[in-house]
Write a structure and sequence with these properties.
Distance between the termini: 89 Å
CATH class of one domain: Mainly Alpha
Helix content: over 70%
Strand content: under 5%
Shape: elongated
Order of helices and strands: HHHHHHHHHHHHHHHHH
CATH topology of one domain: Serine Threonine Protein Phosphatase 5, Tetratricopeptide repeat
Number of helices: 17
CATH architecture of one domain: Alpha Horseshoe
Largest sheet: none
Number of strands: 0
Structural class: mainly alpha
Length: about 300
């Protein structure tokens, strides 16, 4: 019985010791918090661009822990709040992102980056109306051209989703006037005209975006999306041969994209090409059955004849 008590005491002391160690690690000193974050930044490229490490969720969470610890000891440094919120958005936790962004706005001098991440958190929660004011504040405060560009595009697209087309056109026209070589400005202008069902100016804007893609950085995703949009707008204008040309260009860059096969199936159907219609329909059956089922009725007679 006495031996059992000794063992029990030893176990309790060991557990207490482990708990104390864990507690000490969690409540690091300001110097330790600074050093831990500095060391992480030195050895992990994630600290330079967290979006490039979106697939490494464990590393993101480790970074999040260090940033949270750092911000407790240095509560007036806005960058740690911005990065925490960005990570929460990447992890699919927009409520947490919004919470940390709002805390940053309370604790720090407001910055364009803090207002921008607040707006992006609202957008991720489908609360576009709430995103407008922080985006406007971000726009006023921003002094860096790349950041101002991001804010401009974000605000224009929020206005687009809210169907505030005049405000969206105004901000994107101001941007294009100052940056006529940047394709993204023309692409957003095209999206605005397309949403307004003004197809002729939409086509002009998208073609201008592609023309400028050769002279400016334009991500592959945006090139593919612009081809798809051109194909869609030409289809709305019932110019199916032109629609097919652009959709085939998109397909060459992204051969397993179900939206492209869906749109090609429809365009070939209305242009009277049975063989190509069925070819894209059967591919669509393999990669996105629900989308294929949605157009099954349209091509029903060709499927069973």
């Amino acid at each position: 019985m006495q031996t059992h008590s000794v063992y029990l005491c030893i176990i309790i002391l060991l557990i207490a010791g482990c708990s104390t160690n864990r507690h000490t690690e969690t409540l690091s000193t300001p110097d330790a918090a600074y050093e831990n974050l500095a060391q992480f930044n030195k050895t992990n490229p994630i600290s330079l661009n967290i979006h490039t490490a979106a697939s490494d969720r464990a590393l993101l969470r480790r970074y999040l822990t260090l940033l949270s610890d750092y911000s407790k000891h240095y509560p007036n440094e806005s960058d740690s709040y911005v990065k925490c919120a960005q990570i929460y958005l990447i992890l699919g936790q927009p409520e947490d992102a919004l919470h940390i962004a709002k805390r940053g706005l309370k604790k720090c001098n407001p910055t364009a980056s803090l207002f921008l991440i607040t707006a992006q958190s609202y957008c991720a929660l489908d609360r576009d109306k709430k995103a407008v004011r922080p985006l406007q504040n971000a726009y006023k405060l921003s002094t860096h051209s790349a950041e101002k560009e991001e804010i401009t595009f974000e605000l224009a697209r929020v206005y687009l989703r809210l169907e505030k087309f005049n405000q969206a056109h105004r901000i994107i026209t101001e941007y294009i006037d100052c940056n006529p070589q940047v394709p993204e400005g023309y692409k957003i202008r095209g999206e605005l005209y397309q949403a307004e069902k003004l197809y002729s100016p939409a086509l002009t804007a998208y073609e201008e975006a592609l023309k400028n893609a050769n002279t400016s950085a334009y991500p592959l995703f945006d090139i593919i999306d612009t081809y798809i949009r051109l194909g869609t707008v030409y289809a709305h204008s019932e110019n199916y041969p032109k629609s097919i040309i652009y959709l085939e260009k998109a397909l060459a860059l992204d051969p397993n994209n179900p939206l492209i096969h869906n749109n090609l199936c429809t365009a070939y159907f209305f242009s009277g090409n049975r063989e190509k219609t069925l070819e894209h329909y059967y591919i669509l059956q393999n990669i996105d059955k629900s989308r294929a089922d949605s157009i099954k009725e349209l091509i029903y007679t060709w499927l069973y004849s």
